[in-house]
Specification:
Blueprint (H helix, E strand, L loop, with lengths): L2 H13 L6 H8 L3 E5 L4 E3 L7 E7 L2 E6 L5 E7 L4 E2 L2 H6 L6 E4 L3 E7 H10 L1 H27 L2 H11 L1 H4 L4 H8 L3 H12 L2
């Protein structure tokens, strides 16, 4: 995908919200950059301050933290056509407590925090955009909490498979098992049972 095509895709995505004007979006697009990450490269590492947001054009990411005993806990898997950031660090300016890592080769459009802040200071559309992103983060967190409280691991796997069938096969099993909160052995059993139907 060319840079021009990528910018058109982001512009279409942003205008679809209905509250950003062409001028709002064009102003931002003058300040973005493009980034490619190879498998296992990081968008943000624990301890760094997150001062940018990425719009995922291609690839798959995982958000994870390291437990006190040194285990990597994958708590979020991220797919194309969404914004990614370590939001607590982005909002507070404090070092990130999470890592965001590409688990497949990825391409992003990167938006600097300072430009989003500048636009939000002069445009109600961008102010609404920041509010909407914060709301989406909250809703996603709530959805994950409810999933773990109300659904079995098999149901969580079925939901992921239903929503992202083309991507699930590219997620390494140990990351997928961690995301689902189960062992790799349990995941293998769930996959065998799902394939039997």
């Amino acid at each position: 995908m060319s840079n021009e095509e990528a910018l058109r895709r982001l512009k279409t995505y942003l205008l679809a919200f209905g509250f950003l004007t062409e001028g709002d979006v064009e102003d931002l697009l003058r300040h973005v950059s493009f980034r490619k990450l190879e498998r296992n490269e990081f968008f943000i590492r624990e301890g760094e301050v997150n001062d940018e947001v990425g719009f995922v054009l291609s690839g798959i990411f995982r958000s994870f933290y390291v437990s006190p005993v040194g285990d990597e806990i994958t708590y979020c898997i991220l797919f194309p056509d969404i914004f990614i950031a370590a939001y607590s660090s982005y909002i507070t300016g404090n070092p990130s407590v999470e890592n965001i890592q590409a688990i497949a080769p990825a391409a992003l459009i990167v938006l600097p925090r300072r430009e989003i802040a500048r636009l939000s200071a002069v445009s109600t559309g961008w102010l609404r955009f920041e509010k909407m992103v914060a709301e989406q983060q909250y809703l996603e967190l709530e959805r994950r909490v409810f999933q773990f409280q109300k659904e079995s691991a098999a149901e969580r796997y079925a939901s992921l498979l239903r929503d992202y069938p083309d991507y699930v096969k590219h997620i390494p099993l140990h990351y997928l098992a961690s995301y689902l909160g189960i062992t790799q052995r349990h995941l293998s059993r769930i996959r065998r049972e799902a394939a039997a139907f």
